[in-house]
Amino acid sequence: MSRWDVVIAGAGAGGGVAAYVLAKAGKKVLLLDRGRWLDFATTGRDQLRNHRLAMYGHNTGPDLEGNPRVYADPQGREHVVNPIGEGYNNNASCIGSGTLVYGGQAWRFHPLDFRMASTYGVPEGSSLADWPLAYDDLAPYYELAEWEIGVAGSPPAPQMPPRREYPMPPNTLNNQGRILREGANKLGWQTQSVPLLINSTPRDGRAACANCQHCVGFACPVDAKNGTQNTVIPKAIATGNCEVWPETMVREIVVSSGKVSGLRVVRGSETIDIQADVVVLACGAIETARLLLNSKTKEEPNGIGNNHDQVGRNLQGHYYAHAYGYMPNPIWDGIGPGATTATLNFNHGNEGIVGGGMLADDFVMMPIVFAKWWKPPAIPHWGQANKDWMRSNYRRSLIAMGPVHEIPSPTSRVQLAGIEDRHGIPVARLSGTTHPETLRTTLYMQERAREWLTASGAQEVQSRQPALGLSAGQHQAGTCRMGEDPKTSVCNPNCQVHGHENLFIADGSVHVTNGGFNPVLTIMALAWRTAAGISAKT
Amino acid sequence: MIEVALPDDLIPTLRGALERMIPADDDPGALDLDCDRFVLELLAPDATLAGFYEAGLRALKNEGFDKLSPEAKDRFLAKLEITKERAGWTISPASFVETLSQHAIEGFYTHPQGWQVVGFEVTL
To answer: Angle at Cα B111 formed by Cα B109 and Cα B112, nearest 5°?
Structure first.
């Protein structure tokens, strides 16, 4: 038996923030994660086993054995997949979760990202809806995340509301960014630097970015990347109010006399009941939904919060619009992190298109990623011609890409599968696809990406055709959306599960839509707001 | 030492096929950067993959691949690459060539000398 004010399941972007806010407010907090404490030394630089390219494993887990999911492909065929299998949609399993290895793009959502349904109408068959809160509700918490976790960047593009400056100037501009800025100028497009949760100057006792070539997908060799594992979680521990239990798997939510009373967890070989006044779930959009579905009671026989069959629906992530081409001469300077330059000209206001998205350059690319992902169809897969193409094009490559608004579908969902993990807990089954409107938005943004590269002087500019599929991945969201009506949502606008006054969600699950931006800063800001609400009330 | 998951007589066939995936020229080729070892390390813990390789290499060897000139090997591999079924093959020749080419590329372009071939410079 273990007794706490608050227990938080999941120590990623949202859980880490919630632990800090609550511990600082004087709550006794227990923060759980199924993963371990990891760092650069323990994750290394295996170019085939990381979160950018996971051919044979992940540098952060989860282990390939004992953690299956079931993936139903668009044809409805079921596949049992391990964490590197197609359709698994993995996120890092460690303290900090994806924030240990992310690129750290620190975007605020656009004000209209919270108003998609009233701006565009609801496409038939989609579950597009407005958020029950607005940009202004989140703005103060965006600022707290930017300052306390640490963002480097420039003032916002004119498409965004004014905000307080960031605590650090932008990271280093490189050649590709300079070329894209010139191209955007020719088109009359505005650009801004890509805001990054990466120190551009020494801060909080940690170094500035060393401009290395292995950023996204890897832990940082100089610890300049600001994840929750090296910012808010250590600060939470330092309050004396927060304990972290790594390698602890939550089995189910415990309910006593109709009220949520804690979590049943597996720690080593022990099953432990943790009692808490408040329970916060922050396991990511797939695992949080799985945990709710696995927690069945007499009153909620299909899972807690699921009496209206909403838990697990509207699973979404991001389709990426992209274009690639080659400059006449080598431009590669290898100056990392590399995501330097973005345009927000097309996030909204695109005639006949639902939403849009941000476009930016990419992090410094590993040759193996170039070889596998960016080979045009006309180039052979092997032989002298392939080698010649690699040798003459790698350093001339120019790419623009960015996440587009996903139009959610209620049939894209997390359910329970008929198989169990190594603890005997039923695993997630993922099925469905995004709504077809997402493809139209992607195609529109790919045209803009090609325009940008062409204006920047790139040749042989092209894109791949997007296909309808299940979308979740590292930007997974939407499975416990917030709303006023329990019949169409899982949480209320304070991210409290309907009907359970002491059960909250603090991850991307609650996103009604996922914006035309990388979502991590929104997850952090929203977790901040949710935790502040909990500490004010209890 | 790694446990070799292939019969000894198929090692020359493996090396011969890998050599054509990334040929040596003024820069190193697949064999110079130990792509054969890279493949054997993938096979050691993976009996399914090892069986797949053994089936493909055995069929290649039986077709006289080892004795072909480099140009003839390329032509033959290019033909196999678009052949889903073929007499004497228990696996898809196309899948085999695709797997081999991807493994060659993985071994080669994650090798520090492979980085030098394309100009990927690591500063830290």
So the answer is: 110
Q: Report pLDDT digits (tens) over A456-496.
A: 999 999 999 999 999 999 999 999 999 999 999 999 999 99
User: Distance (Å, rounded) from C-alpha A262 to C-alpha A275?
Assistant: 4
Distance CA A155, CA A169 (A): 9
What pTM did the predictor assign?
Answer: 0.98
CA angle B29, A380, B109 (to 5 degrees): 40
Instruction: Give me the numbers of helices (H) and strands (E) for chain B, helices first please.
Output: 6, 0
Closest CA to A405 of A314, A316, A293, A510: A316
Task: Say if the Cβ atoms of B119 and A386 lie within 8 Å.
Answer: no
ipTM above 0.95, yes or no: yes
Closest chain A residue to the Cα of B46, Cα to Cα: A56
Q: Are strands A341-343 and A320-326 parallel, antiparallel or unpaired?
A: unpaired
Residue in this structure with the two tokens 């600022």, named with its chain if needed? A143
Give the H or E element holding residue A384.
helix A383-393
Interface of A with B in 43-62 (CB under 8 A): 47-48, 55-56
Q: A366, B81: Cβ pair inside 8 Å? A: no
DSSP A228: G
Task: Write the single-letter amino acid at B15.
Answer: R
Q: What are A380's two structure tokens?
A: 């052979």
Chain B contact for A385 (CB, 8 A cutoff): no
